[in-house]
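Section 5.1 Outputs to date
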Amino acid sequence: MSKANIKLQLSFDLDIEAPERLLALAHEDLCKTFSEILGAMVFQGLPTVAGKQLAKAGARIAAHHHHLDVRSLNARALPREVLIAAAPHLTDEELDKLAYQVQGKLPELPDALHRHLRRHALKLVGDFRFLPCTVSAKLSSGAPAKLEGKLNLTNGSVLIGERDRQSRLQANQGAIVVEPADTGVQLEATCAGHTLSGPVIEVSVMQLAAHRDPLIQAWLRNPG
């Protein structure tokens, strides 16, 4: 069986006037719809026609693959800060990808739009992204303490290190300070109680978004 020794790529950009019902589709659904519309007539037909032309030069198609992408030219542009507010754990490139994927009809109300973007962001990158951190809080005895842990940039939770998991924090002590390493950032957090894994420390997504740039930069230097 002969092996391919040339890679031929053909690229066509088609500007299409489409009905409004298609413009309302999300990016993934839009791509799926156009793939179904074009179907085998295009995806199998073009290699067949190309193969006949190549045969005239004594060449043949050993294998072929296709790639389809569709984007709306009327898509609503999302401000960067709106994307970051919903997905502070994403890198710049991932934020661009998120904006691309949610093209289509978007919720008008800010809260609904935030939830929509957050859901798609977690679908895009749902893995936990950790930064080492120090938690400054008061123990149940009233004594100040610094606990070692890891801040989860994906959801704002703090995983307390094994050394400090038995620590009991004072109830209703107000804001707790979380300092991610090598960022110069101080985040306000709350304690939602205690489990076998230690105090349940939580930083809001809003807090993460407000300091997103130094947090992401620190994570990129040492992904964890």
